Amino acid sequence: MANIRSVKGMVGLVTGGASGLGRATVERLISQGASAVILDLPSSDGHKLAASLGERCAFAPTDVTSESDVKSAVDLAREKYGKVDLAVNCAGIAVAVKTYNFKKDLPHSLEDFTRVITVNIAGTFNVIRLAVGEMGKNEPDADGHRGCIINTASVAAFDGQVGQAAYSASKGGIVGNDSSHCPGPCTNGDSCCHHCPRSVLHAPACRITRESSELPGKAGALSLTSGRSSRVCTPCHCDSRKPHD
Ligand SMILES: NC(=O)c1ccc[n+]([C@@H]2O[C@H](COP(=O)([O-])OP(=O)(O)OC[C@H]3O[C@@H](n4cnc5c(N)ncnc54)[C@H](O)[C@@H]3O)[C@@H](O)[C@H]2O)c1
């Protein structure tokens, strides 16, 4: 898996796949011969998008924080496409609230903080743990890998702005969480990494299925070429703790 040069024939779960980076990921996967299951909220455009992308795309109405929803999505991938090779976590939410608003004499709502942490960290981990169980059933490739997991952090994990306390904490949590999954043994040979986009236009997720010649060598975008762990996931320069631009 560390030397993936093509996603053709692979099956991917993409959370937040009905919008933004997730949607771009789904569209690229489909256009390059993979199958994709969109895990997104029932209220999203997931159903419409899947219908427009044809047989190799399916929608699983999912709240990533729900064990039963994610299990159903994994089941759908297995039943419809036979396996799970990739899990790309793009579902995420943010609030923009000051830690303390002195004009209103109001502290940041703890409920809002917890909601962001729950969706962004617990939701990502929920998908990782359940996807890994399915990937572990795959035959290992030449590098001994059975699957690949890509999580979306943010430059805010390293460089938060005023009002981003919950968001920055959640993205830092994703970065930290990934270091515990890798390299390999605890996930039975799956690769796991994160990327830290600053903006949609620069987001590595958009590069997931670009021609391999465009991938930056060993530091392959989204670790499809290299990533065994967050420590070697240089799209966000985790080694040096410098954010990806
Ligand atoms: N867009 C950027 O510039 C940028 C920069 C840095 C990081 N990111 C991160 O990239 C990811 C995607 O960002 P985007 O701009 O594409 O966002 P987006 O809002 O366009 O898409 C997020 C998707 O996640 C879904 N979602 C939200 N909560 C969910 C839940 N509980 N269960 C399932 N799905 C849920 C939404 O319905 C939506 O479809 C996020 O994690 C975001 O924090 C984005």
From TrEMBL:
Keyword vocabulary terms for this entry: Oxidoreductase
Question: Into which family does the record put it?
Answer: Belongs to the short-chain dehydrogenases/reductases (SDR) family.
Cite the GO molecular-function annotations of the record.
estradiol 17-beta-dehydrogenase [NAD(P)+] activity
Q: Supply the InterPro entries for this chain.
A: NAD(P)-bd_dom_sf (IPR036291), SDR_fam (IPR002347)
Query: Which GO cellular component terms are attached?
Result: mitochondrion
Protein name as it appears in the record: 3-hydroxyacyl-CoA dehydrogenase type-2
From which domain of life does this come?
Answer: Eukaryota
For this UniProt entry, which segments traverse the membrane? none
Q: Name one GO biological process term.
A: fatty acid metabolic process
